[in-house]
Amino acid sequence: MNTQAIRFLLNGEPVEVTGVAPTTSLLNWLRVHQRLTGTKEGCAEGDCGACTVVVGELEGEDDALRLQTVNACIQFVPALDGKAVFTVEYLRRQTGGGLHPVQQAMVDCHGSQCGFCTPGFVMSLWELYNDCSASGDRPDDNRIRSALAGNLCRCTGYRPILEAGARMFDLPAVGLDGPTLRAQLLALRRRDGLAYAHGENSFHAPRTLADLAALRSRHPEATILAGCTDIGLWVNKQFRELGALIYIGQVAELRQIGEAGGALRIGAGVSLSDAYAALCRHYPELGELWDRFASPPVRNAGTLGGNIANGSPIGDSMPVLIALGSRIVLHSVRGRRTLPLQDFYLDYMKRDLAADEIVEAVEVPLPVPGLQVRSWKVSKRYDSDISAVCGAFALRIEDGRVREPRIAFGGMAATPKRAARTEAALDGRPWDEETLAHALLALELDYAPLTDMRASAGYRRRAAGGLLRRFFLETRPEVSLAAAQTRVFAAFDACTVTP
Amino acid sequence: MKADVFPRVPHAVPAAHHAHPHESAHLHVSGAATYVDDIRELAGTAHAALGLSAKAHARIVSIDLDAVRAVPGVIGVLTAADIPGSNDCGPIIHDDPILADGVVHYIGQPVFAVIADSHDTARRAVRKARIEYDPLPAVLDPLEAKRQERFVVPPMRLVRGEPAARLAAAPRRLKGSWKVGGQEQFYLEGQISYAAPKEDGCIHLWCSTQHPTEMQLVVSHALALASNQVVVEMRRMGGAFGGKESQSALFASVAAVAAWKFGRPVKLRPDRDDDMMITGKRHDFHYDYEVGFDDEGRILAVCIEMTARAGFSADLSGPVGTRAICHFDNAYFLSDADIRALCARTNTQSNTAFRGFGGPQGAVAIEYIMDSIARAVGRDPLDVRKLNFYGGEGRNTTPYGQTVADNVIHELVGELEAESGYRARRAAIAAFNAASPVLKKGLALTPVKFGISFNVAHYNQAGALVHIYTDGSVLVNHGGAEMGQGLNTKVCQVVANELGISLGRVRATAADTSKVANTSATAASTGADLNGKAAEDAARRIRLRLAELAASSHGEGIDPATVRFADDHVFVGDHAIPFGELVQQAYVARVQLWSDGFYATPGLNWDRSKLTGRPFYYYAYGAAVSEVLVDTLTGEWRLLRADLLHDAGNSINPAIDAGQVEGGFIQGMGWLTMEELWWNKEGRLMTHAPSTYKIPATHDCPPEFRVRLFRNRNREDTILGSKAVGEPPLLLSFSALLAIRDAIAAVGDGRIDPPLRAPATPEAILDAVDAVRAQFSAAPAAARSDVAAEALA
Prior knowledge:
The complex is a heterodimer of chains A (499) and B (793). With 499 residues, chain A is an alpha+beta fold. Chain A is built from 20 helices and 20 strands. In chain A, helix 3 (101-108) crosses helix 6, helix 16 packs antiparallel against helix 17 and helix 17 (433-446) runs antiparallel to helix 18 (457-475). The longest helix of chain A is centred in the C-terminal third of the chain and has 19 residues, at 457-475. Chain A is globular. Among the domains of chain B are: 25-33 and 461-600, Aldehyde Oxidoreductase, domain 4; 389-455 and 609-786, Aldehyde oxidase/xanthine dehydrogenase, molybdopterin binding domain (Aldehyde Oxidoreductase, domain 4, 2-Layer Sandwich), CATH 3.30.365.10. In chain B, the strands form seven sheets. Chain B has an eight-stranded mixed beta sheet. In chain B, helix 10 packs across helix 11 (381-388) and helix 18 (734-745) runs parallel beside helix 19 (762-778). Chain B starts with 24 loop residues before the first helix and ends in a 15-residue tail after the last helix. The chains are: A alpha+beta (499), B alpha+beta (793).
């Protein structure tokens, strides 16, 4: 098969890449092929942030420039086609050799000790800096923390880095030449999709849904690639040979968010960042879950569609989507079908998905009056940890009675699963202690969780019960408690101050 | 000379006792700081990967590597049989094979290595190996190892006074068991070694290590070379925390043997998962204790047996056990004590050094006990702690016989208590808890006293070289290893201070065994104390020569001792000579402009068999107050505020020292609250990557974090009056754990002692909450206050 060259901007300069396997990580390409060694490998699984780089893309109908952090260790090089990659080496070019305000603030605040994680922090801060500079915002402490939630530092304890995140705006500003960058990206844009090949392996990046469906039909054996945040690990950690890859990230139809028929429709190619931003506009109660879902670089690269299609029992989006009554839209050359999300999951890592089908979108019902919704995860760490338990709760209270309760948990079974007995114990009952007691007993019967390194089966049961009780305390008609009375994280946010 | 040769530090800024940035900060933030994997590779460089044992304990029946060799790009393989010298990389006791020979002792033990033309090829090829095992019984639990009397070193015991008799006579007693988990170092830069063959059978090794000399020795033994044939170079590490003290040796050895065998440069950079599967961690400890005390909470006698998980080999477990024994007292006078340490041999990774080196494990036990005593007698834990502090007539000798001569714990704790508003917050928290059904707050103030020096006296030595070039720039080389702690920055500050020049003139180079020989590990917090003194000695020797020259050439009968070095000038009588000018004159006058320097810590002695002596030159002190919020429904928690006050002596660099204090505190908090090592039934470590092993992240740094250095010039003659600061602050984190325990106690009446194991994960916290609830509802009201400490297995 003939191949096209992968084309993108590297630190502002166009590059063309051929002769590397499609699963070559951006990190290895930078370090080994380009000898740009500022970007570090700390874990090769997107969990430490030492490899953080910034990727620029044009988005939306007005082709607005968007810069976002990603983990270079789990980005395949062909997925960068048409984009702009910025590494830590770029920053001093911006200033003609001096330190960029982000870097100067890190030096001034003593934000580096061993220095190995530092380039990753600098890039996360650089994204925040550019984002805030463009909008004229000054980030508060919590926004700085959240922007850095995907970067681990073992030396500093973070305080000086958080301080640098505030201090960088006090230094003489250094702007990014957006218009030039935008023009460069427009010049790189392809009419048709990318078809890249190397040996036995190939990478296709179609630009339309029709092309995607046709490709899928011809290559049912191919791996569908979206954000690469999980599939990158198949390569780095499991050494899997993937053969043909079909990348959905350039399919315009899949990158759309819209509202229709009382539902929010989120395309399968929409990033987790954008999907949750849209969800939280309608369901602000989900803010904490969003902030805790993976890390910013993973949310920027990963997609909601990918999280759903993957179907991991510990994925954090499914419980709440199921509790909200979401539907999944599947697409193939044969047409389109829609089914309730809960029915998509058949068994451990088994889904109701035909070989020629792809996930097109998820449809999330919009809130109705009186609907109470919560979803929380429990894990050892606040930031970027995989849930021991993730619970999602939705119900309406009419005339003091529970209507249409929908409860789903992750981490409690082989799939994200509804709590049928618990729901039955609630339906039509007054929302009081007695009903809760019955529901808690029912919850014991709904799940038979496992013991693993994240938690014991017994803890998972008790924590699930604790979350249900918390939901009750926050939503009961009589003297309901505020979030700051029931959740340590809400209370933490309340005492977080700008340094 | 160009004007901008020394641009970074204005002359007016003093070199010492000033918050200079880390010497590499500008490189760190630019991605321009070179770590071993960033060194431009030599032509023909090959890459190694390790094949690991899949069994916890087994005889190797056969190793079939044919399929590995057949992978395109594979250059060859290495097994134990290929090692020409000794197949051992153990630091003290020689029980650590480089590659398993005949028997494997844990899942993750390296069995063979693959050498290939790329890192990826080597890693993929490893998986083609077929190893046949004949399983042997595996011991995975340290307590089971104790029952079987499987120890890596003989049990250690320190007894002072008559603990058994005093215990029996004590009016009140508590007996319990407790445990604290281990901790992965999680240096961000993993283990890495890069070896290049040189002429005449020599090896040059770039290695991320805290102990270049040890790497030189291990490599020379493995290759049957003389030490003078091996050079180890180490510019900086991306973190180490003890994990690269002894355990960089395996990687150094494999890279060097491969380089020797295949005659080409070989780099060995294990993936993070392999690194965590192979290397040892902080020892988890199990404690069985009994303590006797009076009605006020004064300890009368205490007996404790500490069982540490040593793993499959000795490594540094013996000294870790010793340090645990020597820190069980923490800040408290223990008149009658029986302190034992057992290093249990298990079929798991061989545990090793980690910041504090057993000290934290020893001291955290007495703090946990102190807390329990306070609940038992119904007093504020701070009051009970104060009652037991060292100080006063006959209360100044440690169980191991050293006099605590520099005690500042009373003043330091008093200052922190006042500054942090401890008493008022205690009351506010009680009020909050009374009104809060789900969330409970807790508060704890804990002290630290930490002994500085290697327990083994002869390790307490260091050397340095200082060169002054004719342009007036200065290069310093010393035996210490820069791992992020700011050692090079401090040493440069010391040299600049000694020569009266601005810091910008001084540059530190890589540690290099061909420059400064026979160095000790950069460990035990001693890096700046030892190497700073050695560098000061070297600089002083040159300064004396320069002073003599200045005195003799600028006036009759001027005493060289009156020549002053300051502000980049040399002052002789009324004359001020620019430093660079004097250096030029010295060169022309054939005065030696470089010197070595040496330092050995004075006054130390240690009897290894009796566990007594003066192992520590001095003590560093500190204290912390933590306030937490605990969710009694899920066990989730947050640190809301931490106030730290720490004694760094007359700090050479307050910013760097504050960074050590803060970073040590958060790292210790990670150990005690969220970092959990979990092995499955087969003995496979399942938490071997950051996806499953969680170190603190940004939201774990408390929103109110008040950190201050305690003003206290070291009474001993240390480098510029400073104190070591690497390890002691880690112990400040006890306050976070005990604040959680305090919050849990609020679920009951405050007198029930929560059985909180560490790490205090949400699960551990919820277990303790449930235990307190159960006791509280079961116990009749009158009896509730007498509930004793019970451990949760």
